[in-house]
Amino acid sequence: MLKRIGVALTIGTLALPVAAQTLLQERLKGLQADPVALKASVEAGRKAAFFCANCHGENGISKTSDVPNLAGQNPAFLLEQIRKFGSGERKDAFMQGLIKVLKDDQPVQISLFYAAAALPPSPADARLAAQGKQVFDKLCVRCHGEQAHGNGEIPRIAGQKLAYLQTSITRYRDGTGIRNNQLMSIATAQLKNDDILAIANYLTQLP
Ligand code: HEC
Ligand code: HEC
Question: Closest ligand 1 atom, CA of 110?
Fold first, then answer.
């Protein structure tokens, strides 16, 4: 199974305009380093994201538990996921169609807009959260970090919606092809459903 995912990733990468995506990630970095241009991009992103607010909320705090919060997310990760929906490497009927409407700098601007928004933690079951912390510290911390804020294309998972966390982790583990990432397939391979529920409770209540 892992081997098959690896092959799919390689083919996907070759078939895509890799150079174009690298340029967008470079553009993102350039804007992050320029406070005046960054402010203008965040404003442009706010306007471009008006339609996204229907599901992801006005400021990136989504309205239902199966839709991810985008607020406070790492912008390089958001940009990479927009690319993955566009290429079909990540599957969601609605997002795949919608993302094709974005043009020019809009993916970069929207990523910067959501990244700049604040994300409050959500309530969780304290006993499960304590259990989840133990698993997280063993299997996840080396990539997602002590605070679970990730870095670059590694997502922030602190404060994410409970149901969305549970569904996403399960999809990586089960190799459904909906989410494709070899690192995550390996990291989640041994998890039981109870572990996943516990980790989700731990992560959702983190600031
Ligand atoms: C009809 C509801 C809906 C609308 C409108 C919508 N999204 Fe989404 N979005 C979703 C759902 C549901 C998911 C989670 C898909 C999954 O389970 O993998 C998602 C996932 C995402 C993700 C991945 C986040 C992560 O943490 O992995 C990004 C980025 C995203 N959407 C950006 C956008 C942008 C930008 C727009 C506007 C152009 C938008 N979405 C509009 C429903 C929506
Ligand atoms: C070797 C590095 C690595 C390890 C270890 C790791 N992750 Fe990840 N994780 C990633 C990367 C990279 C992504 C983005 C994958 C993609 O593009 O779909 C990710 C994505 C995720 C997502 C999707 C977030 C979103 O917003 O869609 C969740 C949830 C997650 N990881 C949870 C975990 C948990 C729980 C563990 C421990 C059991 C773990 N990760 C271990 C690197 C890692």
Answer: 35
